[in-house]
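Example A, followed by Example B.
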Amino acid sequence: RLAVLIIIVQALELRAGWSQEPVQPRMNEEFLKQEKIYHSRGADGRRSYTTDRGLSQYAELLPSGFCDALGRLGSSDRWLDIGAGQGQAILDYYAPEDAAAPAEKCRGSGARARAVAISIEDRRTDNWKQQAARLGDDRVRYLSGKRLRQYSPEELGKFQIITDVYGGFSYTEDLSLFMEKVLGFLEVGGTFYTL
């Protein structure tokens, strides 16, 4: 009976595979769309992809549980934001209590985690530079000029939470390598939030 069941399951899987469009062309189409977005330029000649998503947008876009997990982090924990752009989500996370109403539930009530923003291009604003100077490099860091795969574990360390909102995950040419790198930077029991 088990052999018959296995044959039936295999036949159903094979037939299901015939009715579907091949995976590779769809992946190639999606990759071409992402490359077009990545290489697009605005009127000023700069890349025109979104670089200013705040923490409230992260809360809307990322899977449920993100805000609660971020709010539970303590001062010795770490958050990595891949494709952070201007680092607005991290700035919102560190904003004074009265300025952070939309992101309140993501911040928790205790001390903030240390945060690292990664972006291919340096998109730091004056606001980032002022906040980073106030908080210090031990609390917030901004790294740019390299893709995630080019960072070593020694450079970045380990993180309890890693986020990617239309960042490297969307643009990677090698999803397996990207995920291998993300998992390498994730603490045991940590969480990767992406779209």
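Example B, a separate protein, is given below in the same form.
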Amino acid sequence: MIRLAKCFVRQLLSVLYRVGVSGMENYQKSCNRVLIIANHTSLLDGLLLYAWLPETPTFAINKDIASRRVFKPFLYFVDLFEMDAVNPLSIKSMIKYIKQDRKAVIFPEGRITTTGTLMKIYEGPGLIADKSQATILPIVFEGTQYSPFSYMH
């Protein structure tokens, strides 16, 4: 049932927004301890990762975003790792989590692009990957920056 729903979402988004995904060809080659990083072009990015990834990884998300009521129905379907941007122990907890041979998704920009290009990349994901000795799997989405769910005008 979940595979069918994922396939439907992939087809729908591909048709509506001409979504292109690169980097997925390396997913099967990656080991158990993986930090998946993706560009953040729209509010659809989490849904895209959920639909395109063969398994459901844990999503690292800012606790303030996770507490918004508008996102609650969608967050029910995935495993969350809530992070506090001002608490360094959050990063330490994520390192411990990934060291248990887990896969996690993080958006290294920390926010949705307003220019269509990459925003500032923060150090946190690099530190997490280094300290947890995780493989970094970059995933790039194209097309959603032109959707009504992006911040571009």
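On Example B: Helices lie at 2-17, 45-52, 63-66, 72-75, 88-99, 124-132.
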